[in-house]
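Dear colleague,

Thank you for sharing your sequence with our group. We've completed the structure prediction you requested, and as agreed, I am returning the results in plain text so they can be pasted directly into your records. Please verify that the sequence below matches your submission; if there's any discrepancy, let me know and we will rerun it promptly.
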Amino acid sequence: MESLFRAYNRRLEETQTNYVRYLYNTIEWNERLIGIKGAKGVGKTTLMLQHIRLTFPDRTVAFYASLDNIWFSSHTLAELVEYLYTHGVTHLFLDEVHKYTGWVRAIKNLYDDYPQLHIVFTGSSLLEIDNAEGDLSRRLRMYTLQGLSFREYLDITGTAHLPVFTMQDILTTHMQLASSITHNLKVLPYFEQYIKTGYYPFFLETSSPESYYERLQKVVSTVIENDIPAVENIEYETLQKAKRLLMLLAQSAPFTPNIANMCANLSTTRNQLIHLLSLLERAALIRQLHAQGKGLKALGKPDKILLNNTSLMHALGSTADAGTARESFFSAMMSHSHTIHHAPQGDLKVDEKYLFEVGGKRKGFSQIADLPDSYVVADNIEIGFGNKIPMWLFGLVY
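Please find the predicted structure tokens below.
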């Protein structure tokens, strides 16, 4: 157990609190059971450790442990908690909970058996809490942490401190917003950097775009080889197909999938392919877009597939054009608090009402002319006009 205490103190001492992510102040930290899930590398561990440093002057009442620590190969979580609870710990922070076999039941038992204990845990974005398994969802307050927005990127690099703007703010007052921001900030060069290397906070720990992409490639491998098997009962051969599928999508997205051709390329069945696509989406590696109004059909073939974010596109060597990166960025930002559908006219439908055509600075309205609530989202412009809005502004929505 001493190794866990050493790891806890070492991680805590290395944690900086000069910048906290957007989610920090929205979490109801006083709840007894809190879950934070999200893609690997977006900062879930840091968020928990920052909370300990910012909240507990007496660190002995809080304890952090990662459940993938080798200590748990020969000890149980119940053993640890019994010791901690009898030694005055009131707040427990558990990392990588999906790596612990039977974690749902274990957490539920801790919640019931230690009524004065507060528990916060992090897990893979793959996690789906089954209501039938320990009835954990009734007790749990779950949050999802996204990757860095463009607003956060500007903030964390010390470039600019900007407020959050809602989509409605942007649609109705984008000219005023863009003018006030670009008066003091040449925003486009920073936006170009963000598109390439800005989505994952660990860019601060890398020395070059190449090292950032190498680290991200390792993250992708870990997600497929370790996180997916920790959550799903899946065979090694199927995991290899998931890797091949992701690379296929990286070289092809966006496209309307031809399920038959994809099955042939991967030597798999339709049902398995649909399942693999679902796993990659839950792992925050891809994004599937369906047309509005499909209902149950949306459980099947998607109308368009994008990589989850633009950093992934660059790391995986995507050969898709700039238009794909633009759609990927816009989808990543808007999915934080809005629903997104594929649109037969234009590119994307948001909240089943607003139609967006995404393109370069010369993009016009020909494809969405005379359609209500329609807008052009244009890259490489600082300030827009009318219903033509600078793309970078949508990076300020969280």
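Summary note from our side: The radius of gyration is 22 Å.

Kind regards,
the structure core
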